[in-house]
Amino acid sequence: MSDILSRIDGAVAVVTLNRPQKYNALTAEMLDELVTTLRELDGRADIRAIVLAGSPKAFCAGADTGTLASASATTLWRSGFSEKWDRVAEIETPLIAAVSGYALGGGLELALLCDIIIADQSAVFGLPESHIGIIPGAGGTQRLVRVVGKSLAMDMLLSGRRIDAQEALQAGLVSRVTDSLEEQALALAYQVAKAAPLAAAMIKKAVAASYEMPLGAGVAYERSLSALIADSEDRAIGLAAFKNKQSPEFKGR
């Protein structure tokens, strides 16, 4: 059976990491398969939201150190393993991480690449790399500090401390904690899928740009996207539907 499973329900796709016996630890091959699956779904006009899930015990416990430990520095560098995470960041379709159990190391980095993270009460988040003699290599030091702030990020990075779902909620790492993770993830995805596809894609670009730009430049970029989307068919459809108190049928163009 494949390590990456996917199913489609209307405008929503659910992608599941399926290596529960290894707590969904990612091998290079598994990450390749995940990227391929996400890219294929991203290219489909009928898919407007993607839920990324794991198993009850682990969303993802990180990169598979057993398969990576024997690789030399040059082998790792030439493999492009870390760069594969960038391909996930490039997905334009909204990504929702549904976290149950462990989200550690590369698992937390994978969740941070998603647009929204929701969790159940069993979720545990951490970046334990420093305690096995390495550091995060897929954006953990950069993205975590932007989400939770320097002090908590450094606490987790240097001490290896793990935080539970409630602390993650308080820190802004997750948007909600629920006792019905699958149901809530799907409900959220269905709601996101109602958004105009062009608007969703532009919002993702604008928010991503906010990490790279000063405020003034970011506002100017947002303004340019806002002007650009005014020329779209979806804008006309949305305004007409709003005026007539109807549900819009967006075309993605």
Quick structural summary:
This protein has two domains: 4-193, Alpha-Beta Complex (2-enoyl-CoA Hydratase, Chain A, domain 1), CATH 3.90.226.10; 195-244, Lyase 2-enoyl-coa Hydratase, Chain  A, domain 2, CATH 1.10.12.10.
Secondary structure elements and pairings:
Layout: E1 4-9, E2 12-17, H1 28-42, E3 49-53, E4 58-60, H2 65-68, H3 73-79, H4 81-89, E5 95-99, E6 102-104, H5 106-112, E7 116-120, E8 124-126, H6 140-148, H7 150-159, E9 163-164, H8 165-171, E10 176-178, H9 181-193, H10 197-210, H11 215-229, H12 233-243
Parallel strand pairs: 2-3, 3-5, 4-6, 5-7, 6-8, 7-10
Antiparallel strand pairs: 1-2, 8-9
Keywords: Lyase
Enzyme class: lyase
Pfam family, one: ECH_1
Shape: globular
Number of individual domains: 2
CATH class of the largest domain: Alpha Beta
CATH domain topology of the largest domain: 2-enoyl-CoA Hydratase, Chain A, domain 1
Mean pLDDT: 88
CATH superfamily of the largest domain: 2-enoyl-CoA Hydratase, Chain A, domain 1
> What's the total number of strands?
10
Task: Report strand %.
Answer: 15-25%
